[in-house]
Design brief:
It is a single chain. A 3-stranded antiparallel sheet has the order 1-5-2. It has a two-stranded antiparallel ribbon with strand order 3-4. The chain is rod-shaped, with a radius of gyration of 46 Å. Helix content is 43%, strand content 20%. The chain has 199 residues and is of the alpha+beta class. It is built from 6 helices and 5 strands; from the N terminus they run E-H-H-H-E-E-E-E-H-H-H.
Length: 199
């Protein structure tokens, strides 16, 4: 449902109001009201009044919460000009036009969840493990690579170990251990000394 508020004959130039209206058009009404409240321009002050009035109209007349309102349209039309004169040299005068504005703000209710707009650029595709097929010797395509991997897996098999081979390995280990023990014992016993060397 759309609810309007109109302010006529506002003593501000339409151009100044349109500059501010561009910033808040399509925004949630409560957020836009806070933004306009602290905006330094004269047009923002006039637009803030009309926006708050539209929010109050929606709440009082239709029972819509201000938190569920969004600005659907802002129209800033030119009102009548007030003509003034400024004195110049030699009896001449310059015309001054005091411009006025008619501001119309339309708010509508929405579900409160704003859809996130996508960025201007398209998302890049994720890289794949298999390379793309190129002109000169590049990696094969994904289906061919998968077939090659399957073939390699089939070729690699674990060899069967017989009990005879196990016995041979155990015997060789025992022989090497026995040899190591004899070498250690030989090093531990002191070498016999001759009697003539001590005297």
């Amino acid at each position: 449902m759309e609810v309007r508020a109109v302010a006529k004959f506002i003593r501000v130039q339409p151009r100044k109001v349109r500059l501010v209206a561009r910033e808040v058009r399509g925004a949630p009404a409560a957020l836009a009201a806070h933004k306009l409240r602290f905006h330094p321009s004269k047009g923002a002050k006039a637009l803030h009044k009309v926006l708050v009035s539209a929010m109050a109209n929606a709440q009082e007349n239709h029972g819509i919460s201000p938190d569920l309102l969004r600005i659907s349209n802002i129209a800033v039309d030119e009102g009548p000009h007030m003509k003034r004169m400024q004195a110049r040299a030699m009896g001449r005068g310059n015309r001054i036009l005091k411009k006025t504005s008619h501001i119309t703000v339309t708010v509508e209710d929405y579900d409160g969840e704003q859809t996130v707009k996508p960025h201007g650029t398209k998302a890049k595709p994720r890289p794949t493990l298999a390379g793309k097929r190129g002109k000169k010797g590049s990696a094969p395509a994904a289906p061919e690579a998968a077939a090659l991997v399957a073939e390699v897996v089939e070729e690699v098999t674990t060899p069967e170990i017989t009990s005879k081979e196990v016995a041979e390995v155990v015997e060789s280990v025992e022989v090497t251990q026995a040899a190591a023990e004899t070498e250690a014992a030989a090093e531990a016993t002191p070498a016999p000394t001759e009697e003539g060397e001590n005297k």
